Amino acid sequence: MSQALPLPPVVRSVAALRAQLAEWRRAGDDIALVPTMGYLHQGHMALVRYGKATCRRVCATLFVNPAQFAPTEDFQTYPRDEAGDRAKLAQAGCDLLYAPTTEEMYPEGFATRITVTGVAEGLCGAFRPQMFGGVATVVTKLLNQASPDVAVFGEKDYQQLLVIRRFVRDLDLPVRIDGAPTVREPSGLAMSSRNAYLSAEQRAQAPELFAALTAAAESLARGGGPVEAVLGAARQRIVAAGFASVDYVELRDAETLATIDRVVRPARLLAAARIGPARLIDNVAVVPPAAV
Amino acid sequence: MSQALPLPPVVRSVAALRAQLAEWRRAGDDIALVPTMGYLHQGHMALVRYGKATCRRVCATLFVNPAQFAPTEDFQTYPRDEAGDRAKLAQAGCDLLYAPTTEEMYPEGFATRITVTGVAEGLCGAFRPQMFGGVATVVTKLLNQASPDVAVFGEKDYQQLLVIRRFVRDLDLPVRIDGAPTVREPSGLAMSSRNAYLSAEQRAQAPELFAALTAAAESLARGGGPVEAVLGAARQRIVAAGFASVDYVELRDAETLATIDRVVRPARLLAAARIGPARLIDNVAVVPPAAV
To answer: Are A148 and A142 in contact (CB under 8 A)?
Structure first.
């Protein structure tokens, strides 16, 4: 039997968070922040381990942020398991869990919102118009509350990562933003808290999202095309696998998310599709075909 | 002849600003930031002196922020005199002038905006819908660029001061916001860079804005009313003095800016009116009539 690691302490207020982090900072420790909405999986654990490899201290945050859900979305049903999360964080070497209440984050009278254009438009921004403004606002708050040296986000949410890089640069937030690679199940399915919504059958079908993206990326890297035909084939494959609908499969510049119709510099294939009660997203890198 | 004080050094990049402030911070000095749009007058000097009395070091900023002007407003013609400003800053004990370029503040690709509801709505927010979002965005940038201990703003821009307090609290920016009292000419006219737009005749008429507010506040503090009659008399007096039009004269709660129709806790009378090429604003405190 493996020995239980000590659970990370939990703080629920900005004041308690700052007091603990200030103590570590006085001791000369640098700090990585890993914001999450909880219901942690191996993808989150990889972010915590990344943070721990980067900085002496890692603080994970757990807050299901109402501001990034539309009224029709799954805020109420979003899976929650703080006790389980805390045990997993202990395994990954997390030093502190910050799990604020909604009242601590959005007290009576709260009246501020951050909006981002450009990278936040299109893709998921077109289907979930609330989301990135809500993400920008809550991440800015978390960064200002913790003042970490580094904050770590997953490439699974690739557009979100670019949105965060954008407003952090635009608002001159004094923090480094690191992205960490997507963690996948052996089937290729990207780890996601929303995979918990899937039935056994849907879970067997869901890996085709990644498989379709991978095949399309390989085709484009070999110089295949035209792009619209490659994307169309990927959409068909996702629907054929049992997805109810495809929100988008798109090829974008990897840095700006600008629409492109050929791959001459690093690009990204991004997709969102619906299966059962879940909306799954995924993305893969597309390398330009080698110059002849 | 008084001896010329050494001019404060000028930095124009975030990197140079941070390097200088980090040096002072390492020496144990705390830092006050005084954001301005330049063309400094005694009101600004009072903010700098306030900062110097509060912290060991004072950094003034000079940036005419295009994001807070509507296309029809006076961004192009806003008065500018950096050399004169620098000499005045020296007299007030300013340690550093941060005067970034527009490219440094809003580089190609800039895509983020902060918006505030509640206190930012109504009053000047109704007449200048661009303004407070632009103020919130640029002030957040300046605060993140400098990470001061205290930032000082004038009560002359009373609604702006409350908007700044609001988003600083909402975004958890780790800084204290201090307001400093309005500085007035002997006539009572509030010091403003836009007073430079006034002809000699208009400058003789302009003090009636403050006089009308003061008379209304005294009436309300004596229990006079009804409120709408007191405000109406103030509007009439401002127009009678030679102002072309009155944008608003309103009584609001001093802390929330909520509309009120009687004074039972600290309140504020706020006004904006147009005279010649200038739109002038002013405000005064209203103390509740003493309980009987």
So the answer is: no
Give the number of beta-carbon pairs within 8 Å between A and B: 80
Please enumerate in sequence order all residues whose Cβ is within 8 A of that of B276, keeping only pairs 6 or more positions apart, or say none. Answer: B197, B198, B199, B202, B244
Confidence band for B4, pLDDT divided at 50, 70 and 90: confident
**Structure tokens, A85:** 């999360």
Q: How far apart are the first and last CA of chain B?
A: 57
Q: Where does chain B hold its CATH 3.30.1300.10 domain(s)?
A: 193-286
B147-190 pLDDT tens trace: 999 999 999 999 999 999 999 999 999 999 999 999 999 999 99
Q: What is the ipTM of this complex?
A: 0.95
Fold of B10-180: Rossmann fold (3.40.50)
Q: Does A122 touch chain B (CB under 8 A)?
A: no
What are the tokens at B245?
């039009």
Most B CBs within 10 A among A105, A168, A171, hence the mutation to make, goes to: A171
Tell me, yes or no, if A170 comes closer than 8 A to chain B by beta carbon: yes
Interface contact flag, A144 B113, Cβ < 8 Å: no
Mean pLDDT of the A58-65 span: 98
- Measured between alpha carbons, how far is A50 from A35 in angstroms, rounded to an integer? 13
* Per-residue pLDDT tens over the stretch B199-254: 999 999 999 999 999 999 999 999 998 999 999 999 999 999 999 999 999 999 99
Residue A287's closest CA among A258, A266, A261? A266
Instruction: Give me the helix-helix angle, A131-146 and A14-26, nearest 10°.
Output: 50
Q: How much helix, strand and coil, in percent to the nearest 5, is found in chain A?
A: 40, 20, 35
pLDDT tens-digit readout, A179-215 = 999 999 999 999 999 999 999 999 999 999 999 999 9
> Helix (H, G, I), strand (E, B), or coil: what is residue A6?
coil
Q: Which residues of A46-65 are buried (b: 16+ CB within 10 A; e: fewer)?
A: bbbbbbbebbebbbbbbbbb
Exposure string (b/e) for B165-190, b if CB count within 10 Å is 16 or more? bbbbebbbbbbebbbbebbbbeeebb
Handedness of CA B216, B218, B221, B226 (dihedral sign): negative
**Class of B193-286 per CATH?**
alpha beta
Residue ranges, comma separated, of all CATH 3.40.50.620 domains in chain A are 10-180
Separation of alpha carbons A259 and B243, rounded Å:
53
Could you confirm whether A41 is annotated as catalytic?
A: no
Q: Quick one: which of B192, B177, B245, B188 has its CA closest to B213?
A: B188
Q: CB of B114 within 8 Å of any CB in chain A?
A: yes
Distance from CA of B139 to the nearest CA of A (A): 9
- Show residues of chain A in contact with B145, CB under 8 Å: 172
Q: Residue B29 corresponds to which tokens in the numbers above? A: 């000095």
pTM above 0.90? yes
Phi, psi angle pair for A130, to nearest 5°: -75, -30
A136 touches chain B (CB under 8 A): yes
| Helices and strands counted in chain B (H then E) | 10, 10
Tens digits of residue pLDDT in A11-41: 999 999 999 999 999 999 999 999 999 999 9
- Catalytic one among B21, B38, B44, B231? B44
